[in-house]
Amino acid sequence: MTQQPPPAGPAEPPDGPAPPDLPDRVARVYGELDLSTVPAFAGGFINFGYWTALPGPGDRQLTRADRVRSEEDLYRLVLGTFDLPRGGTALDVGCGRGLGCALALREFGPGTVIGLDAHPDQIARAREANAELLAASADAPGRLEFLLGAAQDIPLPDGCVDCLFSVEAAQHFRDLPGFAREAARVLRPGGRLALTTFFARTRAAARALPALLPPYADGLDVPHVVDEVAGTLAAAGLREVRVRAIGDGVWEPYDRYMAQQPELRDDEWPRRYLTAYETGLLDYYVLTAAAG
Ligand SMILES: C[S@@+](CC[C@H](N)C(=O)[O-])C[C@H]1O[C@@H](n2cnc3c(N)ncnc32)[C@H](O)[C@@H]1O
User: Fold this and answer.
1) Structural domain includes residue 7
2) Which of 175, 233, 251, 292 could pair with 152 in a Cys bridge, judged by C-beta atoms 3.0 to 4.6 Å apart?
3) Ligand 1 pocket member 95 (CB < 6 A)
4) Methyltransferase type domain spans which residues (predicted)?
5) Angle at CA 21, nearest 5°, toward 15 and 24?
6) Domains contained in the chain, number
7) Are 73 and 42 contacting, i.e. CB atoms less than 8 angstroms apart?
């Protein structure tokens, strides 16, 4: 099994009409290929994980439970940047199966969590995976909702969100200025944004990455440059834009986990992310900002 779907071949057929707001490759990976079922993304999450808070000695064998914990902890890291008001509204942009939304509701206690995703299959999976919580929360104070829509065209009114977060989705966004504009629009004045994913460190790195990592070459990911992402948020009117590199808690332990799993250790190109990090091409980041 591979950690991620194989790079697109030249004759890859389309699988029906793509969701209007997604490029074909992105639509395919979150449609019929269903990336969350690939073994390296355990537990229904789809992110590289943040591995610094795992219990036990740092050099022990990593387990599937650790992998799930790492993915949850990436959400905890992002949500921990907020002082989420009781009764407030939080929005997860690129929510995937919505498990991070459920975690936000369970552990951080906002009034409403809205999971937004541009792929209708992901929204259907999120509703199925969280069916019990959705039913239980329909009229309760802690409410969960899933909404089909794109980061660059968020189907919500102005100023209705207290905290907007996004976990490992922005590497797919073609229209980052559109996302930044929409984030600034839906956040209430004083609302907070936290965005985490991997970005290129420099323009030269962005040019080099497609030769090393097929997702950049086949149209799944865009090698956005981290300082330009920060500049895009500021240009949309967001304030106090801060960038924190967290790669030391992501790439080495992720690669060690891959190396320790017999079915994953021979995944040749996914293991090149560590090379890309160690050679200074990319890193994993948390960007935070305030609205208004
Ligand atoms: C790598 S997955 C991450 C899912 C989830 N945040 C997690 O960590 O488990 C990226 C998600 O972003 C969604 N996505 C990609 N482009 C998007 C866009 N322009 N607007 C909204 N969602 C998008 C995909 O459909 C996919 O579900």
Assistant:
1) no
2) 175
3) yes
4) 91-194
5) 35
6) 1
7) no
